[in-house]
Prior knowledge:
CATH architecture of chain B: Orthogonal Bundle
Strand content of chain B: under 5%
Radius of gyration of chain B: 11 Å
Order of helices and strands of chain B: HHHH
CATH topology of the largest domain in chain A: Rossmann fold
CATH class of chain B: Mainly Alpha
CATH superfamily of chain B: ACP-like
Radius of gyration of chain A: 24 Å
Shape of chain A: globular
Helix content of chain A: 25-40%
Largest interface: A-B, 22 and 21 residues
Low-confidence stretches of chain A: 1-22
CATH class of the largest domain in chain A: Alpha Beta
Oligomer: heterodimer
Structural class of chain A: alpha/beta
Number of domains of chain B: 1
Strand order of the largest sheet of chain A: 5-4-15-14-16-17-18-19-20
Mean pLDDT of chain B: 92
Structural class of chain B: mainly alpha
Low-confidence stretches of chain B: none
Amino acid sequence: xxxxxxxxxxxxxxxxxxxxxxxxxxxxxxxxxxxxxxxxxxxxxxxxxxxxxxxxxxxxxxxxxxxxxxxxxxxxxxxxxxxxxxxxxxxxxxxxxxxxxxxxxxxxxxxxxxxxxxxxxxxxxxxxxxxxxxxxxxxxxxxxxxxxxxxxxxxxxxxxxxxxxxxxxxxxxxxxxxxxxxxxxxxxxxxxxxxxxxxxxxxxxxxxxxxxxxxxxxxxxxxxxxxxxxxxxxxxxxxxxxxxxxxxxxxxxxxxxxxxxxxxxxxxxxxxxxxxxxxxxxxxxxxxxxxxxxxxxxxxxxxxxxxxxxxxxxxxxxxxxxxxxxxxxxxxxxxxxxxxxxxxxxxxxxxxxxxxxxxxxxxxxxxxxxxxxxxxxxxxxxxxxxxxxxxxxxxxxxxxxxxxxxxxxxxxxxxxxxxxxxxxxxxxxxxxxxxxxxxxxxxxxxxxxxxxxxxxxxxxxxxxxxxxxxxxxxxxxxxxxxxxxxxxxxxxxxxxxxxxxxxxxxxxxxxxxxxxxxxxxxxxxxxxxxxxxxxxxxxxxxxxxxxxxxxxxxxxxxxxxxx
Amino acid sequence: xxxxxxxxxxxxxxxxxxxxxxxxxxxxxxxxxxxxxxxxxxxxxxxxxxxxxxxxxxxxxxxxxxxxxxxxxxx
Lengths: 563, 75
């Protein structure tokens, strides 16, 4: 037996068992850890598998709710013994792994604040985030711990690191997590209910200028996380779900861990890097029914020969979802043909905490569109004075504020948080169009942030790193259209006198960015110029660079500094 | 000889002096070896060995052994 909820244009079947009883005690919500683990165990589902772990060599291991509860309890106890208090920030610097998931819930059980960081982060990117969030503890692995050791002297709050794959403690700073686990208790008492505005996790995102910003999310986000998942994905009992996003990305954390666990959705987690054959084998062998991935991944798969797909059986696959960048109609049609099922693109941001606009079952898909706002979301296209623009015209994509998973602040940057709001509206920083049928169409960022393969990269971070190369005198980066990545990073470089551009220097730039920031921030193209166009106050005129790149007229240059 | 030089290239590209390679080493076993850093690696190998890979070759390597064999054929 189930019930039906009205979903804009049709009724959607929702399995009653999967809806958590709502609350409970006035003004309190379930701790996110309790919503994902405790409620399932209380319902007698402790032995059900929460995720099936697929390793890089495609071997399997299933993890039940009770296993995740036990391990996260043990780590929660270890953290408490190490002096972790409510509100302390703990970072997880690990690739996708069971330990990442246990640690995430362990932090929440302590009412501390979790920050999952991409394991591909280079030294500068790592330092900026650990310094900003003032982490007292970092949970990591041996091969990554070297990066932390290098910068620990400048991180005044960092007390210790827990390393998941060493057998012995190294000193009073570097502890072996396995050794601590061997002497830990599976019992950990914590309050299942918590104030909805209690911080739970931090998600870093890049801006046009300055350092990355930590969007703080609260335990009260759980209702948005659950309801958006149910409304958009409409997964039935016994269907298998696969979200390919890294947990350091908001999609991977919210829809790869929390939402499926809070709704008892059985899912797989694949640990390996992108590999077309492995991914297709996962879809086939794991009998995936609902697959959440990214347009870049679909575009990379599109490069493969059709024969690779015909060798696999995708008959169990019923729906594909994508997020991160716009899904081009061409890619949409290709994926629909190859996988023989509907493809639903959707939109959200690190700041929104959950899906805001989506294509979904019950609403006809318009290829290239983001779809319609979720039923609890009010989306508008507004001009720069916050007045509605005519339907069909481009404007700023804004959401009426107040949805439960809306970020509560940017850590240490309240003024930037305030800038994101005007009146009752949150400004996404994206330009979009709303058509006469109420569908939203993404146009571009309204600022200089580059969306490459679904990752937002701030030009400032890349420019700062490149400027440290001794051969480079000045630099500016822009985003340019790319058939695979949506946008690629293009670097304009002024070299010092007598320096010649070479492959060796390109390699130096690429390795510097990889190791300082991340491989996703590597410029894919380098242009050597005599000067970087700037206005009289020294601000880089990126519109001029974009025009140069596209071979267009750069327009009014009256504000440009004379060189 | 090739394997020593290749190890040196890997260590420079991934800034990790502890990297050790064998024929079966794959991208999943080297921290940071993803599709983006693969291009760094290819450029570094081409410079170090004075060779050029074709696009098909770049996409075809399943492990270090296959990469090394391809280098062997080109030098």
